[in-house]
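Annex B, item 7. Sequence and structure tokens for protein A, then protein B.
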Amino acid sequence: MKKVLATGMALATLGLGLPLSAAAHTAGAFMKNPAFSGAPPQQCVSTVEMQHCAAHELRVADAEMSQRYAEVRASLGAAAQKKLLTEQRGWLKSRDRDCLAQGRDGGSMASIAVARCWVEVTKERAASLEARLAPKATAEGPWPAAAFLGRWRGGEGTVMKISRKGEGFSIENQWGLDAGMRGTFAGTLTAAGLRFERGGVVETARPGPGDSVNRSALRGKRDCLVVSQDEGYCRY
């Protein structure tokens, strides 16, 4: 009985600032916990600090996973999209169920074990989804650097300029009209495309048709880079 109570108390700490209910014991509720909504602490030492750091890392991992899911979904037909949705819902349930089991032994670190599990399995899911986007390997590799280099325009004032920088790439990007939506980022060529981190979120640009992006300015164009369903750029 004491062991059960200890486990319950440890898991309840995952819901700091939230009602101590079953609903709080999910990765989604943990990410949205207002106690962990700000920037993570510089040091992750105490239990609360470690939870805050894990919540931030989980938000980043979950955002990337959601982006990869959207990209895979956009590449499928209606029937396959429905199947993918069922698969994703099952995965979300298993993420909570399997990771909550990590805290079954109780103790002061039980809540940290659960949070770290959520982070790791979410990263694994993102990688699994990304693998579905990777083109078939060829002797020359997925895409040559030339497929990304140059100037690209996305419409409505959005632009992207990609150049080589050492072994990697430099990406100058204006992805929105707000002043804060402009910057220069380091890019790395991967099997899934040109990967870069922007605003704490990992993005991937890959060659594709303009019709796969929800922007009228790109319709009918073939030489384009697709970042998401709502973001893309075509060469000019």
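Protein B:
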Amino acid sequence: MSSQPHFNEHYKSLLDQLPPSMKKDAWLRLTTRKNNPLSEEQARSIRSDIEELLTREVDRYFNKKNRQKIKIEANTTTDGSSTLSRLDGFEKQLEERELHVQQRENNIKKTIEGQVDEERKYLKDEYDALKSRLESEYNNCMVDMKQQIYLFKHQLEEQQKSGSANLERQYKTQITTLEKSIVVKDKEIGKLSATISQLKNDKKDIKKSAEHKCKDLEDVIFTKDLKIIALNDKIISYAPHVGRDATIEPSSYFSHYDAKLWTGKREDAKNDLSIRKKYTFRMRV
């Protein structure tokens, strides 16, 4: 620790009144005293005990200077011996008084320190008791919490097991129901497939039958057309003046236009029954 004084600038007015030796002595007294010595950082701060010490040192310094001044003046006067005698008596009384004040201050400090120690011990005992009680309450709370957590966890596990079992039963029931439904649907699908297959076969048979009937009808119609044409040709050969029937296809065309006209009618007759009924063709439609 540094022995050089480094007081705060706040005490500049007091420090300017003291010689360097007293500044150093005050600094050492603060930082090396037996009871509660200050660190350098604390000694550089603003504190009431620092200001009190410096003020007391300034008063002591000026009192000492005044006594020295009085001694000097007493030595230069005729009744200086009696004055010095009175001054010495006064100084002794002052020293005794300062010593008494110092002892009283020390006693007060000791009393205060004792009270502080007792208060500190009392507060420490209270703190320890409170800490012990809080630790006990905390431990009890933790035990209760662990028990609650264990019970809650156990309940959740039981609920999960129960829920899983219920879900499994529901799942199996649904699977069984679906399997039964699938069997029923498969049977229905089989029936429908058989019905569709039968209908397809029936459709083919009906189509074949219709095609045969249509062919037979076309053969009949074409045969009748040929008979009509033959009769018409005979009538014309016997009576040319009667004229040609416009609904019967002629045996020969007088122009390219007539050939194209009858070819168009023959093609239209394939899709239009009214044309097929109205006209008689020499070639199969």
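Comment on protein B: The chain has a mean pLDDT of 82.
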